[in-house]
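Lab meeting, action items carried over

1. Structure of the two-component assembly. Owner: GW. Status: complete.
Input record:
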Amino acid sequence: MPDVAVVGFAQTPSVRSTTGTTNGVEMLVPIFHEVLGGLGLSKSDIGFWCSGSSDYLAGRAFSFVSAVDAIGAFPPIMESHVEMDAAWALYEAWVKLLTGEVDTALVYGFGKSSAGQLRRVLAMQLDPYLVTPLWPDSLGLAGIQARLGIESGLWSERAMAEVAVRSRADAAYNANAQLSGEFDVDALLTEPYLADPLRKSDCAPVTDGAATIVLASGDRARELCERPAWITGIEHRVDSPAFGARDLTTSPSTVAAGKAAGADGVTVAELHAPFTHQELLLRQALGLGDEVRINPSGGALCGNPMFASGLVRIGEAARRVHNGEAARVLGHATSGPLLQQNLVCVMEGRD
Amino acid sequence: MTTPLSAPLNIGFDYTRSLGPTLSHFMTGLRRRQVTGVRGSDGRVHVPPLEYDPVTAEPLTEHVDVASTGVVRSWSWAAEPLDGQPLDRPFAWALIQLDGADTSLLHAVDAPHDQMRTGVRVRARWREERVGAITDIECFEISDGPGAEPVEADEVSMVITPVNLKYTHSASPVESTFLRGLMEGRLLGQRCPKCHKVYMPPRPACPTDGVPTSEEVELPDHGTVTTFCIVNVPFLGQRIKPPYVAAYVLLDGADIPFQHLILECAADEVRMGMRVEAVWKPREEWGPSMQNIDHFRPSGEPDAPFDSYSQHL
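Predicted assembly:
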């Protein structure tokens, strides 16, 4: 089977709200132009297209079909969609490339989170019989998980604030970040709770945005990119949706995905953690020590475009291979409530 | 450029779901003020029940009654409750391990913030009118006391969950121009700079070329029926008594037809190529909407030749 690499990546700025439509066309047209232009490709060079988005986020049926307008799908294209973060669309595209049927694929994700009340809309991903009818919001659930870790001594409110401070400081170097700047841990700890034990600084902002990645296989990848980020392992695993029955202070699906993908030896990891405590949890689950640089982009805590944020993690990690900063990197994506499903993508440069 | 138009979009739907044997037992229990779980392959009692064992994937069938009292295993504070949540005043979300259960149930606890803590004992506060749903438990309250006694109730096999979501729907800039044009009785399409096709209604990007459309084109309010169907089926929300005709109308100068009603003639007189004209509602009823055009009617012109619309079907 051919080797597959990330050869291109583009994203919109992460912003609190856009005036665009919920089908993402206004966000997608410029980033398609950027990523294809950067590689010297046109749409007819792409063998397979795959996207991730959500109709519940958009508040309309088949919003992903309208999004195809941004491609210009004539003559007809080979296209697919997942109702998940676009990191899972990338997984599908990777499988497609492995078949050898195509040698290029473009993956994209988009989300206009500002169209509805995001933390309430996310109740739609919960058990429809036993949980959704109570309308638990995403912050309320994350707060329960955070407290379990705090009270069992696995992390602390201070450690969580330190994650927020480091992320926002790093995001100062990311022109696409929504939040950034110098903050003080002690000062953050005096801020009021948003969903005790979570403060606003512990939670990813509500973000509109989109991202795209181009994958290519074998010689095609070498042709398109000076230093492709070769995917050496990509795996995803899922935990039970019955979150009252699992240990929420760890993530067996992340542990399993990390082991299967071969997370050892990475020097940079972009973790899709919409809450500060989840970054601490994911580091532990993936066995990432202090020598691993976590979220140099600032991570989802500084910009979290729903259904694109996981794809952005893979793109940001790959970028550090493309520019020679790192030899072996990890991109992680999560989907569902409380880190229920997790994907790990390990990439490396070959000199 | 003026700001794109936006408007509230409130959508609602009552999801009706059949329960199956495991959840049916659980929901019937709730209606009786009795919480039940199911025993897993490792002997653990799951509350709420699982249909399949999380370890062996075997179907689980041994129902176990548990108490409606228990212990808070973790919690968070909901300072500003949202629509549909169990309480409309500040409360705690909690994972509650009921006495006799080995797993935890998510629910609300009605308690002052300063009395919430992990390990506190709680009991279910039951709703008076119970239907067999998780909301039959109104919430939990801090208490050392015993739970309520079960009562008799009919079996439950379905659950109805109303879902109501509120959005702000935004029109794209070109759609906004189109909608503002309609308020003046004008029909404003857009031309693709690459393939030169005219879209009516306009779209943010040409679906053929993937480039933003850039040239505004004003179109007349008459055109040709390219294809049609006769609606004979009644449905919820129908405004016109069947039979009536829904047709694709290609305005003169446009490349994409849109759907509208053809009235003021018998349904069986409508045909491909028929020339039609817009019938506008009274001006005082106009808004930023295609509904400003009430319907189309035959214009009396000779039929358009097939070749004139064959590329627009």
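2. GW to write a short summary for the group page. Key points so far: Chain A has twelve helices and twelve strands. The two ends of chain A are 21 Å apart (CA to CA).
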